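Renewal narrative, Specific Aim 1. Our central claim is that a sequence can be written position by position from structural information alone. The example that follows is taken directly from our test logs and has not been curated for this report. It begins with the structure tokens describing the chain, in the order in which they were read.
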């Protein structure tokens, strides 16, 4: 029951790469399924869940533009990639009996709902998982910024950023055995130290809206539910 967590409404941000498993590209259905199960176990606590999924497992605008593609066109392709990921997650969640809506910043009515703020809020109140797709709908932004924007609009209490590691370290913990994890760190320090939590515009937006970011490991089974109940290791980015 909801008594196990103090959170009522949260944003879960994951990168597109979190869905590709060990393949190095695209969607790995068992991995999508595994993450859907993590989301379901939090949904069972009665928490209202927003999700933003990146598109980097399929296409990144910066990569396309580095290969000579016009930047804004490449960014739109990246946004379309996030829609594919959102649909995959929708399918996995609904297969588990969790009702969802995919809500796109760019209308594509045959595929999903357009973003209408008050309608999205209503879905959350009815305990439907809202998967926000197509980023912010604007080129030159990222899905980190989209997650922060939607979390602010939906009045989420925090953004949960699921990554491969269990928090923010002073240096890369994969290549540095002596890396130290921060328990908490300020938005300003994240910006000043150029720590790779989220991109700078997303960090600044979260800071200005007083929206904490909790960085945790998505590879830990039961990790998301544990973090919501105050267990496990993570880093909290706050003002
Ligand atoms: N994108 C964009 N505007 C947005 C969100 C995303 O143009 O508001 C594009 C951008 O090209 C980006 C791609 O979509 O590279 C995929 O998103 P992102 O890189 O954030 O995915 P992630 O790294 O989280 O998988």
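The sequence written for that structure reads:
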């Amino acid at each position: 029951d909801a008594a196990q967590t103090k959170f009522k409404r949260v944003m879960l941000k994951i990168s597109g790469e979190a869905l590709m498993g060990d393949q190095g590209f695209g969607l790995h259905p068992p991995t999508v399924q595994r993450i859907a199960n993590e989301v379901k176990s939090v949904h069972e606590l009665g928490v209202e869940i927003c999700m933003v999924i990146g598109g980097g497992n399929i296409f990144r605008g910066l990569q396309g533009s580095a290969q000579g593609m016009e930047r804004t066109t490449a960014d739109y392709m990246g946004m379309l990639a996030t829609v594919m990921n959102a649909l995959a997650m929708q399918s996995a969640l609904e297969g588990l009996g969790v009702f969802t809506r995919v809500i796109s910043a760019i209308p594509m009515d045959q595929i999903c709902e357009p973003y209408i703020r008050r309608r999205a809020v209503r879905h959350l109140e009815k305990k439907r998982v809202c998967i926000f797709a197509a980023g912010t709908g604007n080129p030159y932004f990222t899905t980190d910024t989209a997650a922060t924007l939607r979390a602010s609009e939906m009045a989420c209490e925090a953004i949960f950023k699921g990554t491969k590691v269990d928090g923010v370290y002073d240096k890369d913990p994969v290549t540095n055995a002596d890396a130290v994890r921060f328990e908490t760190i300020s938005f300003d320090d994240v910006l000043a130290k150029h720590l790779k939590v989220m991109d700078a515009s997303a960090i600044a937006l979260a800071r200005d809206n007083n929206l904490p970011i909790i960085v945790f490991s998505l590879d830990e089974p039961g990790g998301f539910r544990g973090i919501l109940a105050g267990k496990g290791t993570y880093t909290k980015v706050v003002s």
